[in-house]
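As agreed, record passed on underneath.
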Amino acid sequence: MAEVNNYITGTVEANGGKGGPAGYGGNGSYVLLYTDLGELNIAGNINANGGDGGYGGGDSDTVDIYNGYASPFRNKANISLRGGNSTVDGDGGNGGQLLVNTYGGPLLFAGNFNGRGGDAMGAGSSGGDGSQAVFIVNDSSDYGYGEVIGPSDIEISANMDLSGGDGDSGGNAGNINILNNADLSGDVFPPAGRVLLKGYRKFDMSGGDSVANNGGNAGELAAVTDSAYSSIDDGYVVGSIMSSVPMDLSGGDGALAGGQGGYFFMEAEGETYMRDTDATVARNTADLNLSGGNGDVGGDSGGFYIYGYNEARNTGDLNLTGGAGTSQGGAGLFENVEMYSTEDVANLGRIDGNGGNATTDGGNAFNVSMYAGHRTRNVNSMDASGGDAATNGGDGGFVDLFSQGAVTWNTASIDVGGGAGVTRGAIGSLFIDLTDMTDYIDGKL
């Protein structure tokens, strides 16, 4: 602990010990890095992994980072909180927790993070679950005069692996939660902070694969800038959220059932806004894999949600297909695609959300909703069709595009057809500006 600027350049080792062929890996230890009135700069790697062991891998623990009073936090170090592997016959260890909590100052995270669950070995074994990662910037005050200092930017430009471990049953992936948080107590309205996820890296939050049972479920990415208000019943303009990081949030493959795909959530929503600007927007520009895993029963896909007051925009390709199955295909678009804005919604990326194909029953497709206070614009294809099957095709989904202040602009194909089969799946529904287009398109626009 310190009240001066901290520079950590040496390696921090808090790993669990390695077990022998008939032993268990040890657990990693808790690491606390705390500074109150100065910068915190980390350049030395931090390792708190679970140890490998014959009969089971050890669990990781927690790296807890606290930085107070509007001072910058900068991380260039690699942090590893992975679960230990089983090397003979046992479960994989669970990944740990990464907690980064700062006040006022910018949060800059550029080092890689390995929080993968450990792999398992043997019949009946389970892969370890992936780590949890939390990044928060809170409002603060200056040390001398006590005026409010708003939260600065959160910038993450790192590879992050929170995937579940492989095993007889796959482990579940971990989650990433990012919050730019302001709970103001006075009448000062400082500048808004943003959330920036830089795109030359990759996040892996996929479920672990299964040898004989169920694949693991994928994780969730949630980035929020929506807590901005004060005691005078007013607020200040919250920051934007920008993501250009490709992400794998696919469910793991399984012999019995595929794992469920993950969830991508961005919400830039506060109490005060500036109209017709880029002040509060939410934009994704990267490809995302949110598909269900394959299995005898295909896994259902995850979901995609984005809200920005001035604009909600997606330019990445979104894979929300159901997993392929033998007896049953997984549901496509299972947790839906939702894009909302009080001003404009724009989708420029392809959306693949068909139900999974299967031998017996194809998977159904679920919903796509795009609602704008001004105009919704879609310029790339959407597939919300049912999955094909030898016996029963899956049902098509529901697509609803709506503009409150202008005419919706769609220039791309939209497929809500039923899947092929001896019994074809039911055609879904397509609405544009409250008009039911389904009867005019025979399932595909």
Remarks:
- The radius of gyration is 23 Å.
- Helices lie at 438-441.
- DSSP finds one helix and 41 strands in the chain.
